């Protein structure tokens, strides 16, 4: 068994050090490593896991990695898989946060470059997600409506309400579509573990905000904030942007500098929690933020895998998901304007850099890390000139 865990750690750490390009690219890296190279599972099972993780809130690529770790080595295998994939980018972003906060030069050219490239990356994400999550007129309309409502009701509660409303619309509009049943998965844990995981998930989600007013601990506050965000954000790392921007007491400049830096590192974008936790409360704050951000994913994956064959076959669940996914596109579109665009673009030259970086990403298919580095260099040069 020790060799099995070592093997999981080795594979996951390799992916954590090399998986650039966002959740869609991560899925491609995972398939290459786990399906084609190591043959831990076949394409059908891999596709079923990916479908499940697209349905759940939280970081989809991290959840796929956790799921494969669970299938390969049980609960400990899932934890090891998550650590290997997540820690490299967490450590890099914590170091970056320490550097930025110690220098305090948020108006420097290279910081400006990070903020500007965030506009291009989010715009690219909106286009990509629209093609897969809102491909028809109805879902595009849902997305636009949700974007408008998000800008008019800029609160976390408002965003939750928007997602619920879109899910209800999807349920009634798409509930007659046929869904093909999925095969069962071979797991080392069963429905009892799944039910306990769901109970823990909802217990923390409900009671953390209730207890928060009665404690003065900044670490409890961080845990509550990031656990809540990790529990209700659909659509991957980019969608976490508007929620964290509203929930975390960090300036827009500092926030977007971290978001831009997160584009330049491998691994899940949700590791932005490590950067923000470090800025807010030092190293322990970063650890608390990262654990809280990803803990819901563990509970959700553990809770859902034993029931996935049943859930996957339900028309109502899939219909609801179509509405929710369209809402995700709309929420991200709203975030593209505020805070990303409004905080980063203050002149014609800023917008020129946005157009250049966007073109390199979308038209010339440059890797995000190359675009980020180029934007940082251009930003620094423009600042000096």
Automatic annotation (TrEMBL):
Membrane topology, from the record: Multi-pass membrane protein
Entry keyword annotation includes Heme: no
Location(s) in or outside the cell: Cell membrane
Membrane-crossing residue ranges in chain numbering: 79-101, 113-130, 142-174, 195-214, 226-244, 256-277, 283-307, 319-337
Keyword Magnesium tagged: no
InterPro entries the record matches: Chr_Tranpt_l_chain (IPR014047), Chromate_transpt (IPR003370)
Gene Ontology MF term list: chromate transmembrane transporter activity
Keywords attached to this entry: Cell membrane, Membrane, Transmembrane, Transmembrane helix
Chief place of localization: membrane
Gene Ontology CC terms, in alphabetical order: plasma membrane
Family: Belongs to the chromate ion transporter (CHR) (TC 2.A.51) family.
Protein known as: Chromate efflux transporter
Gene that produces this protein: chrA
């Amino acid at each position: 068994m020790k060799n099995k865990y070592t093997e999981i750690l080795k594979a996951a750490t390799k992916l954590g050090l090399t998986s650039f390009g966002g959740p869609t690219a991560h899925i491609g890296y995972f398939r290459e490593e786990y399906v084609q190279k190591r043959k831990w599972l076949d394409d059908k099972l891999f596709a079923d896991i990916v479908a499940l993780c697209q349905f759940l809130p939280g970081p989809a690529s991290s959840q796929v990695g956790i799921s494969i770790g669970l299938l390969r080595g049980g609960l400990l295998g899932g934890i090891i898989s998550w650590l290997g994939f997540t820690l490299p980018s967490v450590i890099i972003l914590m170091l970056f946060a320490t550097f930025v906060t110690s220098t305090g030069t948020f108006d420097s050219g290279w910081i400006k470059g990070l903020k500007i490239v965030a506009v291009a990356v989010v715009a690219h994400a909106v286009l990509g997600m629209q093609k897969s999550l809102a491909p028809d007129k109805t879902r595009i309309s849902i997305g636009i409506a949700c974007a408008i409502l998000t800008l008019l009701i800029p609160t976390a509660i408002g965003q939750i309400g928007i997602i619920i409303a879109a899910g209800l619309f999807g349920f009634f509009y798409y509930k007659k579509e046929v869904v093909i049943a999925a095969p069962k998965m071979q797991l080392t844990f069963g429905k009892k573990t799944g039910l306990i995981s769901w109970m823990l998930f909802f217990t923390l989600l409900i009671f953390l905000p209730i207890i928060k007013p009665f404690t003065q601990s900044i670490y409890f506050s961080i845990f509550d904030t990031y656990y809540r965000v990790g529990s209700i954000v659909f659509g991957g790392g980019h969608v976490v942007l508007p929620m964290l921007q509203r929930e975390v007491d960090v300036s827009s400049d500092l926030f977007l500098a971290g978001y831009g830096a997160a584009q330049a590192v491998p691994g899940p974008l949700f590791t932005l929690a490590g950067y923000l936790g470090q800025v807010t409360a030092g190293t322990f704050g970063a650890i608390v933020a990262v654990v809280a951000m990803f803990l819901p994913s563990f509970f959700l994956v553990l809770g859902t895998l034993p029931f996935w064959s049943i859930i996957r076959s339900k028309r109502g669940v899939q219909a609801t998901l179509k509405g929710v996914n369209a809402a995700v596109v709309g929420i991200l579109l709203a975030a593209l304007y505020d805070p990303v665009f409004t905080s980063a673009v203050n002149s014609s030259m800023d917008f020129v850099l946005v157009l250049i970086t966007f073109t390199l990403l979308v038209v010339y298919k440059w890797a995000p890390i190359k675009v980020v580095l180029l934007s940082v260099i251009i930003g620094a040069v423009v600042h000096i000139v």
